[in-house]
Hints:
With 141 residues, this protein is an alpha+beta fold. It has helices spanning 3-7, 10-29, 65-70, 125-134; strands spanning 34-39, 44-46, 58-63, 72-74, 77-84, 91-98, 104-106, 112-115. The strands form two sheets. A four-stranded antiparallel β-sheet has the order 3-1-7-8. It is globular, with a radius of gyration of 18 Å. 11% of the residues are buried.
Amino acid sequence: MKPDQIISSTNFVQNYKTLISSIVTDFINSDYNFAIIIKAKDLTLTPDLELFKNPKEYVRFDILNYSFETAEIVENKFSFRAGFGQGANVQESEVSMKLIDIFQIITLDSQPLFQNFAEEIEEDLDRKNLFLSKNKGLFGK
């Protein structure tokens, strides 16, 4: 098995999901503030504030104060509330992401605690359509 097949294998990804969940849950239960780094494309903001122009950029969130108090894990997703902006222009949004999309967990002074090497590959219509196009004769299309 090639390295890229290992890091995207179902078992490897599930192990990382479990590990990330355990680390985040332990920090929350221990009242330990921390930070996460994630690609902007993997975030969901509700309401969407359209803050991140480059979907490939990495974003750091410090999970402390209000964000820490509202942090939770539900169905393999990590979410918290955060304010964006300054002074009277602060806008609140719920920030959520799949646990597997958390790239790094670090201390507030930027000490790395965890790095995610797993790559979850989602089944999508493109794969299905590719399969169907290569096997047209089998399905009468």
